[in-house]
């Protein structure tokens, strides 16, 4: 079977700093990583390949430096990497991103064989929208299974897939037709450490690099900023509250029970409420 | 949502699309809609929270607020529609069909897309739940319109455009996003971000029904079964009255026990910041913030949490925020009400003991005597 996994290279958000005066992101020195949510998708894909045979193609859209993340994915065991890079893609919102990725997936299908399953992570840690997966599915007319906790079975002859999907109040067991798009839930598996053979192969591997034209984009106006219906008008740091926190002391002279007394003075009803809650436990 | 690399003042200007030039065929799009999410006969509270937000937008625009109810035929769907009027709806659109009993993307996408294309709203709001996000992404792509996820603030500006504010860059900054030249302007909002409006008893108003127009054979995906969560497994974090949470300042996974102990003494739910989930110290259903749960408790105690925006937007609705952090410049002191500059590892056990003494049934008599 052929599986395509969409990944994104993102700044490690734990290390992002905002310039205090200009309110812009200080990118220098911030390491980039594969979006952590995508690793669950990649591992699910690799496990399916191990079980059923075939190939895993990883795909990303980004600047040329995003090749680093693709190479990393190859060290985990992916078979092929495709980088979609072009200045026309810059500034894309989720609708324009889904157009570019869907177009590239179609091209991957024509070049390397039609995919049976397309995987994405649940969301990215920088955009946090969870919209690109469903967007790709809709554009490729694939059935979509989002928030998948487990793929219970794939029947390649009957062309069906059965999966457990997390929903608000429980778990849906869904069956649908292949090909389909799966967005994988976090914490559902653990990415393998690739072996030495994978590392060597990854180091030498050629990353398939496509421009918009190479990927088969016919309408550049659907890409990047021009293809994005949403417009970011303002980026700003939130203002502090008018009054900052009242700092209270914690020391031998001001022990914890004095703190609590202070707390209850500020919210007179709180003590009764806490007493009631505490009794319930 | 675009992800700018710099403030728009620097990157804007040359973009034709930043000017409002609404195409003629979108000018008939009017009114504010809220998708009413129900699963297994229960309306998700986020739908009523959105009705509160939608009412304000509709009043500002001087248009109507409509509820869109999609579900199986029968009492639950009818009830959801009549309840919507108690939460401020002027009218309700209802698509009721046995095929809509379980949530399935194909059928719900068709139902919502058809109603939008027929009755043409200018704004469409959905809850950012697993159902809402699954549906919103498909509907927005079908309609080729803009969708802004996980908004923390919704407003309309002077020319009547929806201004949707959300955290960006992993929650380091906020941005305001517009869908100027496409309709409807779509946005999702996470549960508990907007306050629950008061329910006012009302007689149902106008209800417009719309057919689904599908047969079971049209829907490829089948629901083989549904395993409901056991209540005991579910944390009630989002709706808790008191919450205690810990962050990286705790130093080690073992120290997270201190958070749980305090929580149990004051009858609170416990939670954590995102890094603790990423490190695997605490399970993800306990995460508080933009990508976790949004909380609106009466009391929130944050121990060793620095207060990045991604966390801030999840807790700002709390009545009283008490922050414990060793760094007096930590951003959390910008939005906490009460701050204690000290090591949470020292303070938490002391607080636990002091609360235990104060809240025990006999303590008041003791103080009185």
Automatic annotation (TrEMBL), chain A:
May play a role in a redox process involved in nitrogen fixation. The keyword Transport applies. It comes from the Bacteria. Residues 22-219 form the Electron transfer flavoprotein alpha/beta-subunit N-terminal domain. Pfam families: ETF. FixA and FixB form a heterodimer. Keywords: Electron transport, Transport. PANTHER family: ELECTRON TRANSFER FLAVOPROTEIN BETA-SUBUNIT, PROTEIN FIXA. It comes from Azorhizobium oxalatiphilum. The keyword Transport applies. One of its GO terms (molecular function) is electron transfer activity. Belongs to the ETF beta-subunit/FixA family. This is Protein FixA. The gene is fixA.
From TrEMBL, chain B:
One of its GO terms (molecular function) is flavin adenine dinucleotide binding. Its cofactor is FAD. Signal peptide: none annotated. SMART domains: ETF. Residues 1-20 are annotated as: Disordered. The keyword Electron transport applies. Keywords: Electron transport, FAD, Flavoprotein, Transport. InterPro entries: DHS-like_NAD/FAD-binding_dom (IPR029035), ETF_a/b_N (IPR014730), ETF_a/FixB (IPR001308), ETF_alpha_N (IPR033947), ETF_asu_C (IPR014731), ETF_asu_C_CS (IPR018206), Rossmann-like_a/b/a_fold (IPR014729). The keyword Heme does not apply. It holds the Pfam family ETF_alpha. GO terms for biological process: fatty acid beta-oxidation using acyl-CoA dehydrogenase. Binds 1 FAD per dimer. FAD binds at residues 273-274, 287-291, 304-311, 325. Residues 32-223 form the Electron transfer flavoprotein alpha/beta-subunit N-terminal domain. Belongs to the ETF alpha-subunit/FixB family. PANTHER family: ELECTRON TRANSFER FLAVOPROTEIN ALPHA, ELECTRON TRANSFER FLAVOPROTEIN SUBUNIT ALPHA, MITOCHONDRIAL. This is Protein FixB. The gene is fixB.
